[in-house]
Design brief:
Length: 348
C-alpha cells in the first residue's frame, strides 16, 4: 500500500503516492547515499552446491548420525563413588546441538529425539531434560575444527551475547536500565576455511587483549600459525609476546601516536616497530592492503552468521551453562560451514 505525501494550499489537498523505496531515498542522508554508491555487490558462483548445503542443514542425519549412535553410552568408569554415568559426553552434546539448531526447550528436545529414534528404529534411550541440564554445567564441548597442515591465517575479534535486558531499540528510546547484562564471546576464525578454531566466553568487563593469549593456547602446538589479524585493541605487549612465541606475524594496527619499541632479545627489530615505520612512510591504507589486514572482516562475518543462526541471547542463567551453550552453537556452526560455503565474486 502506498504512502501519501500531502501538499496543502488554501483550496485543495493533493496526495502524491510514494513507494517505500522512494521514501527511503528521500530520507537517507547524503553520507549514506554516497556510501551506498561505492558498496560492492557480490555474486555466488557455486549456487547449486551452496543451495544443497543450506537444505542439508535441516537433515537429521547431519546432527544424529552413525558416529553418535556408536558412542552413545559411556564405556569408561570414573572410579568415583556413586552410580556411573550412563550417557557419554557425545550424546549430551548431540542433544544440546539439536536444541540450538532447531530452537527447542530442553523438554521439547527430549521429546523430539525420542520421536527420531522411534522413526529410525534405533535401540537407544534418550537422556531426559534434567540430565541435559545437569551435564551441560561441566560438559567439554568439541567444536569440531579441522586439522590444518598448512599455516593458518587467523582473525580474532569479540562480540556480545545478551543474558537479559532491553533490546537496542528500547535502550535508545527509553535509556539503559539497571538490569542489563551480557557476556563477551571471543572468537578466533581460520580465514582459509571460515571455521571457528578457538573461543572464550568471558564477562562483559574483560578486555579483548587479555584473552588473545588464551585463544592461541587452544590451538595445537604442532599446527603452524602464519598470521594473526586483530584490531587496535590488541596492540599490547602481552599480545605481541604471545604471537612471537607462536612465530606468527602480527597484523595489528598500532594505536595513534605509537612509538618504536626496543629491539628483541636477539637484536632484531621488533615487528611492531616495522609496522609503525611503514605507517609513517606510506600510510595505513597501503599497509592494510599489502599485509592482508582486511581479512579481519571475516571475524565480523562469523559473528554475524552466529547471531543470524542462533540469535544474540543466551537462554541459560548460570555462567558455566552459558559457556556450554555458546560453544555448542559454535560446534553447530562449524558443521554447517563444512557442509558448504558460498564462493562469491564482486559483480560487475
Amino acid at each position: 500500500m502506498g504512502i501519501s505525501c500531502a501538499t496543502l494550499d488554501s483550496e485543495s489537498t493533493i496526495h502524491y503516492p510514494l513507494s517505500r523505496a522512494l521514501l527511503h531515498k528521500l530520507w537517507m542522508d547524503p553520507i549514506s547515499r554516497s556510501m551506498s554508491k561505492h558498496k560492492h555487490r557480490y555474486r555466488i558462483r557455486n549456487w547449486r552446491a551452496y543451495n544443497a548445503a543450506l537444505v542439508e542443514r535441516g537433515s537429521l542425519t547431519v546432527w544424529f548420525d552413525e558416529a553418535h549412535r556408536a558412542r552413545w553410552y559411556e564405556t569408561e568408569r570414573s572410579g568415583k563413588r556413586g552410580a556411573p554415568r550412563r550417557y557419554s559426553d557425545l550424546a549430551v552434546q548431540c542433544g544440546l546441538v539439536i536444541r540450538e539448531v532447531f530452537h527447542l526447550p530442553l523438554r521439547a528436545t527430549e521429546g523430539f529425539m525420542r520421536s527420531v529414534i522411534d522413526l529410525l528404529g534405533v535401540a537407544l534411550t534418550i537422556p531426559d531434560h534434567s540430565t541435559f541440564s545437569r551435564r551441560a554445567a561441566a560438559l567439554t564441548v568439541q567444536i569440531g575444527r579441522r586439522v590444518s597442515q598448512s599455516p593458518r591465517h587467523v582473525v580474532i575479534d569479540a562480540t556480545g551475547l545478551k543474558v537479559y535486558g532491553e533490546g537496542e531499540w528500547n535502550r535508545r528510546r527509553h535509556g539503559a536500565r539497571r538490569r542489563r547484562t551480557w557476556r563477551k564471546l571471543h572468537l578466533a576464525v581460520d580465514a582459509g576455511n571460515h571455521e571457528v578454531i578457538a573461543a572464550e566466553l568471558t564477562a562483559a568487563f574483560v578486555g579483548d587483549a587479555g584473552v588473545l593469549p588464551a585463544l592461541l593456547e587452544q590451538l595445537p602446538a604442532d599446527e603452524p600459525v602464519a598470521t594473526v589479524a586483530a584490531d587496535g585493541a590488541y596492540d599490547t605487549r602481552a599480545c605481541h609476546a604471545a604471537l612471537l612465541n607462536r612465530q606468527a606475524a602480527a597484523l595489528i594496527p598500532p594505536r595513534a601516536g605509537a612509538v618504536a619499541w626496543s629491539p628483541l632479545a636477539d637484536g632484531r627489530t621488533h615487528p611492531r616497530t616495522a609496522i609503525v615505520e611503514h605507517l609513517r612512510q606510506q600510510g595505513s591504507k597501503s599497509w592494510k592492503i599489502e599485509s592482508g589486514y582486511h581479512r579481519r572482516s571475516l571475524a565480523k562475518t562469523a559473528m554475524f552468521r552466529l547471531k543470524t543462526l542462533f540469535g544474540d541471547h543466551l537462554r541459560n542463567r548460570r555462567f558455566d551453562t552459558q559457556t556450554t551453550q555458546a560453544y555448542v552453537r559454535l560446534a553447530a556452526m562449524n558443521t554447517m560451514t563444512r557442509l558448504g560455503m558460498p564462493d562469491t565474486v564482486v559483480a560487475c
